[in-house]
Amino acid sequence: MTEPSRNREPRHPIRVVSLRTGLTPDVLRVWERRYGVVEPQRSEGGQRLYSDADIERLTLLNRATQAGRAIRQVAELGNEELAALLEEDSAARTATAPAPAAAAAGSEYVASGISAVEALDSGQLQFVLGQAVLALGAADFVDQVLGPLLRQIGDRWHDGSLTPAHEHAASIIIKRTLQWMEEILEVPASAPLMLVTTPAGDRHEMGAILVGVVAGTEGWRARQLGPDLPAADIAAAATQSGAAAVAVSSIRDYDSGRLGAELEALRAALGDGVDLLIGGAAAARLSRQIEAMGGRYLSDLNELRQHLREVR
């Protein structure tokens, strides 16, 4: 087979294309549907298949959008035109002042994300989050977009301006984004494993999701167990998986007495070989009890990062 024909051979599934180009599967589908940027073939089972040429073009388009170009403005350009435009943009950036701070850019993504949540527009929320990850990188995305967005969703759920339907719909998209992030972080299999969950009776896992992605950016393998798990089940999962740490997140309206009992039971069941990390507004009321039982209370993401670096 000659190289030109191989270049056009549809052989890459969408997950491979996502990893190679940095575009989420949802963004890829939107770009194909709205702008016809590439035309993937279909396998016998109906799976999208892309060629090397498709990946090359998508990579150029992604770089152009990260440089500030709207996809609708560049979708019809040829590869040579895109490459020339990218060189021009790169030269201009070198000669001018730095781009706005991540915090300023992050606030815009948060505002767009909240608007999508309010409208129950899952597709738009996925698009906003995907673009934020690509533009800011994993660490700034967590600090400047995901953290503030989760806090706003939680606050507005508590004050009644967002319904459980809004919160649940947003959770689905956020989980999907984080799963994609975990794939592209490429944490080695030899990295220490952390299990992340919420205690029995607490079904609000937004904080736990955030902890998981922060752990991934710090070189840990984070495995989400889902919410509402009794201490015995968490400890059993830690033993079976050989986890080095267990992280438990609990929201502010969770009963302190019940939380304290669950954490005491979990600490005893885990034994001394597993690090127990606890965070969330409910845990803040039990910080002394947590430290006394041999756990570690972490008040914010910076404390979590620092602890993970030290332990690792």
Spatial strand order of the main sheet: 5-4-6-7-8
Secondary structure category: alpha/beta
- Please indicate the percent range of residues in DSSP E strands (runs of 2 or more): 5-15%
Outline: elongated
What is the H-and-E element order? HEHHEEHHHHHHHEHEHEHEHHEH
Q: What's the main sheet like? A: 5 strands, parallel
Gap between N and C termini, in Å?
A: 48 Å
Q: What multimeric state do the chains show? A: single chain
Poorly predicted regions are: 1-5, 96-100
E-strand count: 8
Average pLDDT, rounded to a whole number, is 86
Rg, Cα atoms, Å = 22 Å
Number of helices: 16
User: What is the share of helical residues?
Assistant: 55-70%
Task: Explain the overall architecture.
The chain is an alpha/beta fold and 312 residues long. The chain has helices spanning 3-7, 14-21, 25-35, 52-66, 71-74, 79-95, 102-118, 122-136, 138-159, 164-185, 206-217, 231-241, 256-270, 281-284, 287-292, 301-311; strands spanning 12-13, 41-42, 48-50, 193-199, 221-229, 245-249, 275-279, 296-297. Helices cover 62% and strands 11% of the residues. A hairpin with a 5-residue loop joins strand 2 and strand 3 (48-50).
